[in-house]
Design goal:
The structure holds two protein chains of two kinds. In chain A, 30% of the residues lie in helices and 25% in strands. Chain B is an alpha+beta fold. Chain B is extended and about 55 Å long. Chain B contains two helices and three strands. Helices cover 13% and strands 18% of the residues of chain B. Classes of the chains: A alpha+beta, B alpha+beta. At the A-B interface, strand 9, helix 6, strand 15 and strand 18 of A face strand 3 of B. The complex binds zinc ion. The site of zinc ion has 8 residues of chain B, from loops.
């Protein structure tokens, strides 16, 4: 059964031993950032519910997506589901897209409504995430907006996670990069010198955060992808002051508008490549209405030197669209692992139709919209190698690669400016390593026979696991 | 109040802790640097602020604008 909101998911995590409560009061700085970092450093890192933050009355939850166990539970799979199985299951559900939303009329997020003397520093337990951030950030909030030239078109309504700096009692800064969908909405509003209405949802069904950070097409609805991935329509409710549809299950909804033709300093902010972005002039959002639950939980995300929660959150919503795009013309492709620094590093597993096919698969990746700028290091392995199992990938590299013919550099190709090694920013050299087994007409000079798995291995794995769990139970 | 990052006299208090007398938060209305009274001096004190993150007049002039502001569409 899918979860209706964050709270249901937190209960499930607690039941499964994947949520920890911190009951003693903590300081906002440096404790909350440190807790986020520490939780993602742990093996099978749990979500952490901080019940008391000094000076605030609200609870804070961190690291909700921060392990493969939590990731599996979000999609209602057993928490020990192997990564590749999670990938294949999600990829199957993706094909059910789009699933229309369900409208509801009353929800807990409307319990409290604030329209006067809004002070976000009182309403939200805000904190500095990394030491040199320029301020306090909402790092996991979904921003909803509509196309000002086509405001009734549901499919053009966008839901995206953009970093938001709290810059005043009722003021936010938003990082909208030119290739983000919200920047199209903003451009159209600014050409008319009109404000752009937005709603900001904090504390959501975990699947919403997953789809809100997925790079979908302009006319593809994140809510309708959420419906496909969770197996039931996603529930929305109308915002108080606009025709925006907001998640019915949220903890908080902030409503306001992006002020037209205005940019003010924002940043720095510790970003996903593990370094700080600079101070830039970004757009501003003025908040005029806040609704929230009576006892709201503030969900935020720690990000830093990988791996942290954001790497789990973006692992498959980067990998699966790339997989779908490549597989459409190259059906031999089995899986795509694009989870290293948002797809800068990619491992593709594929069968080879003829000699040189592995290289062709890599070049296909480099012609996709995301792979073209982001992907820099591409490793191609055989179809029987699990691209999510780095020991297997290293085996392929060490036993299949002939560096003189299998390692290729493509200089002066499109790059990704947030990659600190990109020079000039926005360009880099591509590296392809073809670690597939040669097939004709490639020269197969030495036949190799793989060692097969002994019969009954699977059975014995289960027996040994059961014996081991009995020892643990006694301890 | 002096902003620890840009050294201008442009910071103001935005909140006292809603529960107890634990801390206050300040914001610079010029560069939007934000800090809490309970943070250490490298964050709160203009003289001890980490020099790598200080802002000067030149840094304000050089700031990139993202996304760029489009030309107004005339007529309508
Ligand atoms: Zn300042």
């Amino acid at each position: 059964m899918p979860y209706t909101d964050l709270r249901e998911f937190l209960s499930k995590l607690e039941e499964e031993g994947q949520l920890i409560r911190v009951k003693e009061p903590v300081m906002p700085e440096p404790d909350l950032g440190a807790i986020g970092r520490a939780a993602s450093n742990m093996e099978n890192g749990p979500a952490v519910l901080v019940e008391k933050v000094r000076g605030y009355s609200q609870k804070v939850v961190l690291n909700v997506h921060g392990s493969w166990a939590n990731h599996a539970l979000m999609f209602d799979m057993p928490k020990d589901t192997p990564i590749k199985e999670q990938f294949l299951e999600l990829s199957r559900r993706w094909d059910n897209f789009p699933v229309p939303v369900r409208y509801v009329s009353s929800t807990p997020v409307k319990e409290v409504k604030v329209t006067k003397d809004i002070n976000l520093f009182e309403l939200l337990p805000l904190f500095r995430i990394n030491r040199h951030d320029g301020g306090f950030y909402l790092s996991k909030a979904s921003v909803i907006s509509r196309d000002p030239e086509d405001p009734d078109n549901f499919k053009k309504q966008n839901v995206g996670i953009y970093r938001l700096q709290v810059k005043g009692k009722d003021l936010l800064g938003i990082q909208a990069l030119p290739f983000h969908d919200i920047s199209i909405h903003l451009r159209k509003a600014e050409e008319r010198n009109q404000p752009l209405p937005v709603a900001i949802a904090i504390g959501n069904d975990p699947v919403l955060s997953f789809v809100a950070s997925t790079p979908l097409g302009y006319e593809e609805s994140e809510y309708e992808l959420a419906g496909a991935l969770r197996g039931e329509p996603f529930e929305v409710v109308k915002a108080e002051t606009s025709n925006l549809d907001v998640p019915a299950g949220s903890e908080y909804i902030l409503e306001g508008e992006i002020l037209p033709r205005r940019r003010t300093p924002e940043g720095p902010f510790g970003e996903f490549p593990g370094s700080y972005s600079g101070v830039r002039l970004h757009a501003e959002i003025k908040i005029h209405t806040v609704t929230h639950r009576i006892d709201p939980i503030f969900e935020n995300l720690y990000l830093g030197l990988p791996w942290t929660e954001i790497d789990y959150l973006q692992a498959f919503n980067t990998s699966i669209p790339l997989y779908k795009q490549i597989k459409a013309s190259m059906p031999e492709v089995v899986a795509v692992n694009a989870m290293y620094t948002h797809g800068i590093g990619v491992i593709i597993s594929t069968g080879c139709r003829f000699g040189g096919y592995g290289k062709a698969v890599a070049m296909r990746l480099l012609s996709t919209p995301h792979g073209m700028p982001y992907s820099k290091i591409i490793i191609v392995v055989d179809d029987f190698v699990d691209p999510f199992n780095l020991e297997q990938v290293m085996w392929a590299l060490t036993t299949r690669v002939r560096p003189d013919k299998d390692v290729i550099l493509i200089p002066a190709a499109p790059g990704m400016p947030l990659d600190p090694s990109s020079e000039p920013p926005g360009m880099h050299t591509k590296l392809i390593i073809d670690a597939t087994t040669p097939v004709p007409p490639d020269v197969v000079s030495r036949e190799v026979e793989l060692i097969e798995t002994p019969p009954k291995t699977e059975l014995w794995e289960k027996v040994l696991r059961d014996l081991q769990s009995k020892i643990k139970g006694r301890g | 109040m002096i902003c620890p990052r840009c050294d201008r006299d442009s910071a103001y208090k935005v909140v006292d802790s809603p529960v107890g007398e634990e801390w206050s938060v300040f914001i610079c209305e010029k560069c939007f640097y934000t800090w809490r009274s309970t943070e250490d001096e490298e964050i709160t004190n203009p003289e001890k602020f980490d020099p790598r993150f200080k802002l000067t007049e030149e840094s304000f002039e050089k700031m990139l604008c993202i996304p760029p502001i489009p030309p107004l569409k005339s007529g309508g």
